[in-house]
Amino acid sequence: MLGRRAHLQPGLDHQGAPAVSDQNRVIAFYDERMLAHEPDIEAPFLPGRMDTRIRSLLSGLGVPWKYPEHPARLTAIRHFLELEPVPGVTFEAGVAATREQLARVHTLSYLDSIFQLRGKSAWLDVDTTAVSPGSVEAAEVAAGTAIAAVEAVIEGRAESSFALVRPPGHHAEPVRARGFCLFNNVAVAAAHAQAILGCERVMIVDWDAHHGNGTQDIFWADPDVLLFDIHRGAPFYPGTGSLEEVGVGLGDGTNVNVPLPADAGDAAYLKAFREILVPAAKCFRPDLILVSAGFDPHSHDLALNVSYDGFAAMTGILQALAREQCGGRLVFVLEGGYNLISLSRGVSAVLRVLAGEAPPEPGQRGIAEVEAAAAFHRGAFLG
Ligand SMILES: [Zn+2]
């Protein structure tokens, strides 16, 4: 236990302040190879039962359906951050994960079946997960880039980092691609931090609107990974994530689900963070905090009602927690978020807090102006 801890960089003491001289240095990882994952439902897919079943499902919708998880998600974020740069944030390219790194959370037979799809178009699952010719490399880069983001903070090159990746990962299970996910990026990064980087205990915070069924499955019996997952509850996709799903065996209690009703927003998220997440983290004492950051809880994606200020406030809580618990080491990995405006602005709101801006208190926008207006009008109405 202490021996593994000793692998941490000198100066990155578990309880101490971060060793980086510039405390708010943030690295965002972006790589154009991830744009080559572009399933096109008009393209011919590998023939088989899956193709037939998916096509009958899609034709039954009665409306045109496009693959929602598309390359413009990443380019929209990149363009927004070019238009409105966040001071203190620098960009680095990603890295492709190796088979060995992926095999820490996926079976070898699953990996081989995915690798055989290199250069092809195929449906993988009835919940419409598909690949195009560039998808396998894109997924390798997504997982490897999550690892690179972790290495950057462990090496002390940045206090925090954000892996802007796709395809997303948190629905991918050890043997199954689903929910637009091929490899479980955040799980691959957590397993790498444990196996190679000397992190004994890793906390994963999943604030995507959908439950991270794959991450839960992978670490279900693992006492050294604490998963806190707040999401819209069943029957919302994927249907898992109830309160009672707490882990099993040695991992009993290290899986914390907070299912919410439709349209729950900032107040519910922040209450859960302050009253459940923070106490759980203080009990668990993580060496590293990872965030499965989806931006589909934003009201634009029509499932929940989190605002930009809400994302910023949650980031502020996690930043303070990471500084108290693990030398500030905090790594974000992109999951969902399909409205390009709220996706881009949500990422920017997170980066601004990571880079040092004080997070606003949600629900307070305009309150100061109303107070000033009340003072202005007071003479007319209130004597
Ligand atoms: Zn989602």
UniProtKB/TrEMBL annotation:
Any Pfam family the entry gives: Hist_deacetyl
Biological process per Gene Ontology, one example term: epigenetic regulation of gene expression
Cellular component terms per the entry's GO annotation: cytoplasm
Molecular functions (GO terms): histone deacetylase activity
All copies of domain Histone deacetylase, residue ranges: 68-354
PANTHER family: HISTONE DEACETYLASE 14, CHLOROPLASTIC (PTHR10625:SF11), HISTONE DEACETYLASE HDAC1-RELATED (PTHR10625)
Family named by the database record: Belongs to the histone deacetylase family.
Name of the protein: Histone deacetylase
Species per Swiss-Prot/TrEMBL record: Halomonas alimentaria
